[in-house]
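lol so apparently i was supposed to do this last week
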Amino acid sequence: MTISELKTLFQNEISELYSKSEIEELFSIFCEHHLELNKVELRINLEKEVSEIASKQFSEAIAELKTGKPFQQILGETEFYGMRFFISEHVLIPRPETEELLELAIRKIKEKGEKNQVFDSAQTDNSTILQPYHAPTRILDIGTGSGIIPIILKKHFPDAEVSAIDISEDALEVAKKNAEFHKTKIQFIQKDYLKEVFYPAQTDQEVFDIIISNPPYIGIEENVEIEESVKDFEPNLALFSPTSDALIFYRKIAEDSLIHLSENGMIFLEINQKLGPETLELYQEGFSEVELLKDISGNDRMIFVRK
Ligand SMILES: C[S@@+](CC[C@H](N)C(=O)[O-])C[C@H]1O[C@@H](n2cnc3c(N)ncnc32)[C@H](O)[C@@H]1O
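anyway here it is w/ S-adenosylmethionine bound
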């Protein structure tokens, strides 16, 4: 079978489930993965024969796509923030909104680092020079899933001490695999954050400079509005608030941060677009700066807090 014939088969098989442009995109994603051909190479190799192994891989992919399974789960990986991450049915598929949260966090942490630069004097042979000195920034990610947030932050701030909590042992397995793949050292902790006094450290005096989180934020009553493919294939634990209070994580992070966030420390939260003002309200007391930010689609999506 040629690639062109394979493409026709692929299109026909899934045409009832996906739009023409989605099928085009999916076909090129699977070609990149199984045939190692990018979009340009694909166009000039349409008459090339497909190996038996590859055509079997495509048949399996078609069968899975027909069930509504997200292509990232079929491939077992996804691209996020320009990097490759493993995923499984135990973790949320990283979303573009979280890339925006990371962009914001990276920009603000860099700005803070520049302002806070402390200068150490160092003696050379015959002069004293000033060298920048950075205390390691302590970062905590709550509800880490596939580990995208701590891994990307560690890549940008290699000197930071980065910790990440998740309740799901299975999610942490994926996160650890990703951390190893990207050669980043992160402390992963399996805990129910809602039951944790704060952080399972040696002392309850534990203080962080950055707290970041994209916690489960869909309220129970919003269940009906969520696409079936999301509900069927992504972990409920990652999507839905465990109680009728959709803000339960945000409430606890606000309370904990009063004690466990350093002076001038910062909080970055991805939020439910329908609950912007309500989430912001939780951070009105005890913090010097609080801001509700929109995502690229114009929805209330992030909260930035400075102590
Ligand atoms: C919305 S997902 C975010 C995953 C990842 N940070 C991302 O942005 O793609 C929320 C994560 O919180 C975890 N989680 C849910 N309840 C938790 C709890 N009580 N304590 C700690 N983690 C929890 C879920 O397992 C899931 O991985």
